[in-house]
Amino acid sequence: MRKMYLIAAAWLTLLLLAACSNGADSGSGGNIDGTSLSAGPAEGTALPAPAARSDQPQSSSQPYLGKVYKVVVDPGHGGEDPGAVSVSGRMEKDFNLGLSEKIAANVEQDPQLEILLTRTGDAFISSQELFRPQFANNLPADLFISIHGNTYEDASASGTETFYYHEESLAWAETIHKHVIQATGLKDRGVKKGNFFVLRDTVMPSVLLELGYLTNPGDEAKLWTFGFQESVASAVVDAVREYLGLD
């Protein structure tokens, strides 16, 4: 009888040891009722950001650190000096300013170019004070462009012409005329030397554009259209980029 008690006790001990072993296994990361025993982050606590991977693409937007070319665009006339009056009664000063503003708008997103206007409203600028060339010289600007509409007593006069004064400006005049004449679609009146103070007194390559005749009904009808001005503005910027060797 005593022997039977000893056997039973031994079996009971083995059963208890097996039960303890199973409990220890399930307690080290096991699940109870399908719920994890490990505690999650408290509500509202930010999870740590994943470590940066060197093989992930990096941002390509880098600040431009190269040379910024300054181009002065001069809307001719202004204020009490209206310039030519067109066949429909509109004033050259308004055409000049509108086109100049479109040229400036064409390079707003180009970090290589900065357009500066000699006037941004209907301001009178005396030619006696030489403000226009001095403004460009003092910057100092890399290029100068004076914008105009032409006039003549004979209403049949038509076309686009480009003026320069110093020989150093001839290459710039030929470059911009090549682009602008394609944009205007008007008669090609060529590149000419002209003794205008805005060309004579500037020290950088400078041109004066006579884009069409406001006194010619055909020219004038085109000069005031949005499409014409946008096309010419784009051509001027293309010429600037070609002359300066920009991509």
Note down, in words, how this protein is organized.
By secondary structure, the protein is α/β, with parallel strands linked by helices. It has seven helices and eight strands, in the order αβββαβαββαβαβαα. The chain has helices spanning 2-26, 92-105, 131-138, 170-184, 197-200, 217-223, 226-244; strands at residues 31-32, 35-36, 69-75, 113-117, 143-150, 160-164, 188-193, 206-213. A six-stranded mixed β-sheet has the order 4-3-5-8-6-7, sandwiched between helices. The protein has a two-stranded antiparallel ribbon with strand order 1-2. The chain is globular, with a radius of gyration of 39 Å. Mean pLDDT is 83; it is low at 1-11 and 13-59.
Mean pLDDT rating: 83
Largest sheet strand order: 4-3-5-8-6-7
Radius of gyration: 39 Å
Strand tally is: 8
Cα(first) to Cα(last) distance is 107 Å
Q: Tell me the strand percentage band.
A: 15-25%
- Count of alpha and pi helical runs: 7
Structural class: alpha/beta
Output the helix-strand order. HEEEHEHEEHEHEHH
Work out the oligomeric state of the chains in this entry. Answer: single chain
Low-confidence stretches: 1-11, 13-59
Q: What portion of residues is helical?
A: 25-40%
The backbone outline, from C-alpha atoms, is globular
Question: For the report, how would you describe the main beta sheet?
Answer: 6 strands, mixed
